[in-house]
Write a structure and sequence with these properties.
The chain has about 375 residues and is mainly β. It contains three helices and 20 strands. The strands form three sheets. A twelve-stranded antiparallel β-barrel has the order 1-3-4-6-7-10-11-14-15-17-18-20.
Length: about 375
């Protein structure tokens, strides 16, 4: 029984609070939404059944996106010409979980974001300057249920989750821009604090033990945003008249899929779990529900994902570094519209990161 909860600790805290962070390491995603909820919060005290209890988690994520892609082709000349866009994104995520019994739990969470964006084209094109955003992002509330008794399903279990993402983040955050009129404008979609939509979150999570220390995990996540556009201007039509269909920001869906293995080294009152896996995350070209008009940067990132989790008594420390192995900025709806109008293939670009740095702590209250 002790091993089961130690294994669950290593799996669940790793999956739950950091690795389902759907922001695709760059401009493809709108913003960091914090740690989207997957898996019931783990048992931090491995000697007590996880029934009625509270858990708090604080986590941090950082990445720098600067490599531009059109499709899967990197635009290396951007760095040579020093006209690449560079995003620095920092997210502190706070989450509180209530376990009602061995089946049901609910988590409420909200991120705080600190973002900086450096570019030339947004500041007249002659001089590099920065725009900024900081504040609370979009909150989420997710209910989860284990399909099997979490006390007796030692070989594995499946959890399903359903929830909402609330538009608590400012989706029209303004910053100062140099050498343009007006000088105060909404920041780029990639560093906006929110998207202005009420999202529908659906999840399937699972784990399986292959032996006394070795196991596997999986996570499937989708957030549907039925709202079409949020009314926030991009000013992209001032760059080129052909971008008139990209003058307003879209409210896109987001997705994530993960698969990996874990190995646990356990001792008295503590356990070290080493994990390795793959993940794909991003933004689809078209939404599952509703229209997909206006400006978005669809695409995905395929990453390898090493991680460590150390649990002791009522605490868990965790860290992971997803490393991008494939980045693809797919053709958007507006790109396709402009391709038809011009008679030539049109595709926008997006900046991606090489990796992201994640770490945090979780503890039982």
């Amino acid at each position: 029984m002790n091993f089961f909860y130690k294994f669950l600790t290593g799996i669940a805290v790793y999956i739950l609070f950091f690795n389902t962070y759907v922001n695709a390491q760059g401009c493809v995603a709108i913003r960091g939404n914090g740690s989207f909820l997957t898996m019931e919060h783990p048992m931090l005290d491995t000697t007590v059944a996880s029934e009625s209890s509270w858990y708090f988690t604080s986590s941090y994520r950082y990445f720098k996106s600067f490599r531009h892609f059109k499709g899967t082709e990197e635009q290396k000349q951007r760095q040579t010409l020093h006209n690449e866009v560079v995003n620095f994104q920092n997210t502190i995520d706070l989450a509180l979980t209530r376990n009602f019994n061995k089946y049901w739990s609910v988590t409420v969470g909200i991120p705080y974001l600190i973002n900086t964006r450096s570019s030339l084209y947004e500041h007249g094109g002659a001089e590099r300057n920065r725009s900024y955003s900081h504040g609370f992002g979009d909150a989420r509330i997710v209910g989860n249920r284990w399909l099997f008794d979490s006390h007796t399903a030692k070989r594995g279990n499946i959890q399903i989750g359903l929830g909402v993402k609330l538009p608590t983040g400012n989706y029209n955050y303004m910053s100062e821009f140099k050498n343009v009129t007006p000088s105060e404008r909404p920041v780029d979609q990639s560093i906006q604090l929110g998207d202005g939509g009420v999202g529908i979150i659906a999840e399937i999570n699972g784990f399986m033990n292959f032996g006394s220390r070795f196991g596997g995990y999986t996570n499937l996540y989708y957030m549907a945003n039925p709202r079409n556009t949020n009314g926030t201007r991009t000013y992209r039509e001032t760059l080129r008249a052909t971008l008139a269909n990209e003058s307003i920001m879209s409210v896109p869906d987001q997705f994530l899929a993960r698969l990996g293995v874990n190995y646990t080294l356990s001792g008295a009152f503590r356990a070290l779990t080493v994990s390795a896996g793959g993940r794909i995350e991003g933004i689809p070209v078209r939404d599952l529900i509703g229209k997909s008009d206006a400006f978005r940067r669809p695409g995905y990132v395929l990453s390898v994902e090493p991680s460590l989790n150390y649990s002791f008594k009522r605490f868990n420390l965790f860290a992971n570094v997803p490393i991008a192995v494939k980045r693809d900025r797919t053709q958007s709806v507006t790109d396709k519209e402009n391709s038809v109008k011009s008679g030539t293939y049109v595709i926008g670009d997006a900046a991606f990161a090489d990796y992201s740095l994640n770490f945090g702590v979780s503890f039982k209250l």
